[in-house]
Amino acid sequence: MPPARRPQSEPLSDEERASLEAQTRRNLDGMELEQAGQLEQAVALYEQNVAEGFTGDWPYSRLVSVYERRGAYDEAERVLRRAIGVTRADRRKPAPDRKTLLQGLQGRLRLLKKTAQAARQAAKEGAARGHSFVPLPMIDSRP
């Protein structure tokens, strides 16, 4: 018996294709900017793709990594929640693929919340002892 074929999604319209190409270009430019040490410019490009609902994971994972390293846990959570919403709405991916992606994103969100809670608690305890708290950077998930 031949393997089951995945249902094919509708072809992209010219407008959708142009948008996807622009978003992909921004991701590539963002990667180059990061490598050149121009992180703020890369963040701006990734944020633009997040705002537009880019369906790939690159801008979301890069922003979460950057925001975690900065201790900007609310920003990291915002980006993860946007990624979850975009993934749920993406009907171009088969349901089993969406489910797998969603499970990974939700697990990442749970981990982020625990990290943020631990950082807040450490800051609170340090302040009570008269110490300032500087959050330690998270491990970068960049390949």
Instruction: Sum up the overall morphology in one term.
Output: flat
**How many β-strand stretches?**
0
Q: What is the CATH first-level class name? A: Mainly Alpha
Please name the CATH architecture: Alpha Horseshoe
Percent range for helical residues?
55-70%
The H-level CATH homologous superfamily, spelled out, is: Tetratricopeptide repeat domain
DSSP helical segment count = 5
Cα separation of the termini: 38 Å
Using the coordinates shown, work out and report the CATH topology.
Answer: Serine Threonine Protein Phosphatase 5, Tetratricopeptide repeat
Structural class: mainly alpha
Q: Tally the structural domains.
A: 1
Low-confidence residue ranges: none
Key features of this structure:
Serine Threonine Protein Phosphatase 5, Tetratricopeptide repeat, 5 helices, single chain, flat, mainly alpha, 143 residues, 0% strand
SSE topology:
Elements: H1 14-35, H2 39-52, H3 58-70, H4 73-89, H5 95-128
